[in-house]
User: Fold this.
Amino acid sequence: MVALSKKLTPYCVNNHCMKRYSLALILIFIGLSVGATNYYLNALDGSDSNSGLKECDAFKSLDKINTIGLKAGDKILLAKGQTFKGSLILENIRGEEGNPVIVEGYAFDETTRNFRPLIDACGFRNGILINNCSYIAVRGIEISANGGKKTAPQQQMRCGVLVTTSESGRYSDIKLADLLVRDVFFEEPGFERGEDE
Assistant:
């Protein structure tokens, strides 16, 4: 018995150490996501006076998201199968390595699981603007911007997604995946350019 107990002692000490290290790693990973927030948008049933923190209490518009100070780990979740009018503007937002700010869709019921949310930026310069940002992931979104009233006379082009900088600095890790960008036109349908253009 004594010999068996001596053989188990090193294992038990190592097992105890492994438990402590495992616990420390778990706490580190939990710490990375503490404070991260999911913001839900539902263009049909949402309201910008809601908290946006639950599917049943979703925001309605992209304008509301444009006013929130997003931080590392936050998610912007757009209801699949719905159309969001306007432009999603992400400016001066810094996610972190392994903890980006994410924009993607969510299925609010079984019938929308295979759809994408649509950002309709008709009349806006960009469907999504990512300016002076790092560690941003945008995935599974559909974007269109077919004509519409011009938002600024100096505007030279319209983009589905524009990733740019307006301040010097170091920016990295902007990931765009599984996007469907279609029908992005500066002018109204049917517009014909003059001979001198």
The radius of gyration is 23 Å. The mean pLDDT is 83.
